[in-house]
Amino acid sequence: MESRPFVLKHMLPISRVERYWKGLEEGKIYGTRCQSCGASFYPPQADCSFCYSGDMDWVEIDGEGVVECFTRIQRPPQGFEFASGGYVIVVAAFGSFKVMGWFKGEGLPEVGMKVKAETGKDELGVWKVYLTPL
Ligand SMILES: [Zn+2]
User: Fold this and answer.
1) Ligand 1 geometric centre to CA of 87 (Å)
2) What digits encode the pLDDT tens for the residues 84-97?
3) 62-134: which CATH topology?
C-alpha cells in the first residue's frame, strides 16, 4: 500500500517545567510534589491536578526503582524510525514517583526488577530517560 508521511508539530509551553529539561542535560531527573496536598508528579507538573495549587517543590528522582510494567513497541511510530528493531518502554516506581523510560538492558525486563534511571540522548539528539537493570 502506498503511503506518505503526515507530519504534525506541536508548540508546547515549557517555561514552568523547564528545570526538568535542563536536568536531563545534567544527568538529573526531576519530578514535582505539591506542597499543599503532597501529590507527586512525573513528568513534572507546574500545577497540582488534584488540589489545583501552583505551590510545587522540585524533587530529584534517583536511587533504586522497581519495574511495575512495560511494553514492547514492535513498530515504532513516526519519528522513531531509528528504533526499527523495536524497543521497550518501562514504568518503574521510585518511591511515590512513577518514571517512564526506555529500557536499556538485554531482552525484556521483569515486573519487580530493580532499575536505575539515567539520562542520555537518543540517535536524533533528543534527551530521554533510560532505565537500566541493577
Ligand atoms: Zn495538590
Assistant:
1) 34
2) 889 999 999 999 99
3) OB fold (Dihydrolipoamide Acetyltransferase, E2P) (2.40.50)
CA of 40 to the centre of ligand 1 (A): 8
Q: Which residue's entry shows cell 514535582? A: 32
What are the cell numbers at 91? 514504568
Q: Beta 97-103 vs 127-133: how paired, if at all?
A: parallel
pTM of the model: 0.87
DSSP secondary structure, 35-89, as one string: TTT--EESS--SS-TTT----EEEEE--S-EEEEEEEEESSPPTT-GGGTT-EEE
Residue 34 CA to ligand 1 center (angstroms) comes to 5
Query: In 3D, which of 117, 115, 121, 113 has the Cα closest to residue 130?
Result: 117
